[in-house]
Amino acid sequence: MKILVTGGTGYIGSHTVLALLESGHEVVVVDNLVNSSEESLRRVAELAGKAAVFVEADLLDEPALESVFGQHSVDAVIHFAGLKAVGESVQQPLAYYHNNIVGTLNLLRAMDAHDVRSIVFSSSATVYGEHNPIPYIEKMEIGANNPYGRTKEQIEDILTDLGAADTRWHVALLRYFNPVGAHPSGRIGEDPQGIPNNLVPFIAQVAVGRREKLMVFGGDYDTPDGTALRDYIHVVDLADGHVAALDYVATRPGVHRWNLGSGRGTSVLEMLHSFEKAVGHALPYEITSRRPGDLPAFWADASSALADLGWSTTKTIDQMTEDHWRWQKNNPNGYNAS
Questions:
Q1: Number of H helices and number of E strands within the chain?
Q2: Looking at residue 26, what is its pLDDT?
Q3: Whether the predicted pLDDT of 336 surpasses 90
Q4: 22: Cβ–Cβ under 8 A, 6 or more apart, which residues?
């Protein structure tokens, strides 16, 4: 198939583009490069032995989207593009609602106009909110507790309503947890702009000397070592999950929801110590007060993805940190060579 990938130069997007190319699909990437680099696609082409078509465009630009669909006869869409920092979304809710929701509406209208009605949407475990018990299962009533999560939830609602109104739509909603790691080649990986919002890229920048120390937010949770538990998933496993979901919905109309996660919680300190093992020495850290809104623990029940897609995670925490460190060590400044 020919697949349009929005946000395909980003961290998860670039790994998924590689997985699609390796699976024999053709790929068209649309990205505005606001938080990513076209260099990722150059490296994907080097790894895959073939290139994706790249179009620099913003989903808020309707004529540009119309042009993409007019020029490229695509069969399905994988939709990653969006702003994604929880803290920033609390400070800038208008920017998040406008970018994420209006951009998605523009995309869906362009798809509908061109008879493309198969979409895999990059949702998030954030939609489960803080009221649900763990592990999270897909049939729970969702309710995110920050603007970023609510944009994901509202896009899920839009796609669910669309699937109910028009049985020609094939929709996969993928709720995933904490992607970490990098392609084992060390050629593509996570390259956050500014201060990383997530644990592992922050540890990696401490390890490579870009940050002084890791701040651990909260050491007094009711968990085995007092630090928060999260469900981490290797980005290569995650990319494979997108390809599996795409193949599944290609022949099955309706709206399908899957958690993509490991099904277990790993603590902040466990992740830090695994990274130290990969680096070969201890890394400086300081335990400080909890962050408002942080939950003590959450992880996925990923049994539906196994039953429906034949998909489950294959990579261990140590493989995640080894691959992440290989990427960071080889690319201390990310895709920016200077």
A1: 12, 13
A2: 98
A3: no
A4: 48
Distance CA(70)–CA(132), nearest Å, equals 43
56, amino acid identity: E
Tell me which DSSP letter residue 98 carries. I
Cα–Cα distance, 195 to 206 (Å, whole number): 11
pLDDT value of position 337: 65
The answer to whether the peptide bond before residue 135 is cis (omega within 30 degrees of 0) is yes
Measured CA angle at 173 (ends 168, 174), to 5 deg: 145
Strands (E), the chain: 2-6, 26-31, 53-56, 76-79, 118-124, 170-176, 178-180, 214-217, 229-230, 232-234, 254-260, 266-267, 285-288
What is the Cα–Cα distance from 140 to 128, expressed in whole angstroms? Answer: 8
DSSP 297: B
Residues 6+ apart with CB under 8 A from 271: 199, 200, 203, 232, 317, 321
**What pLDDT, in 10s, does the model give residues 188-224?**
999 988 888 899 999 999 999 999 999 999 999 999 9
Question: pLDDT band at 137, cuts 50/70/90?
Answer: very high
Mean pLDDT computed over every residue of the chain: 96
CB 323 within 8 A of CB 182: yes
Q: Which residue in the list 128, 148, 176, 221 is annotated as catalytic?
A: 148
CATH 3.40.50.720 is the classification of domain 2-179+233-261? yes
Q: Report pLDDT digits (tens) over 231-281.
A: 999 999 999 999 999 999 999 999 999 999 999 999 999 999 999 999 999
Q: Is 148 annotated as catalytic? A: yes
Q: Per-domain residue ranges for the chain?
A: 2-179+233-261
Q: How far apart are alpha carbons 274 and 254 in whole angstroms? A: 41
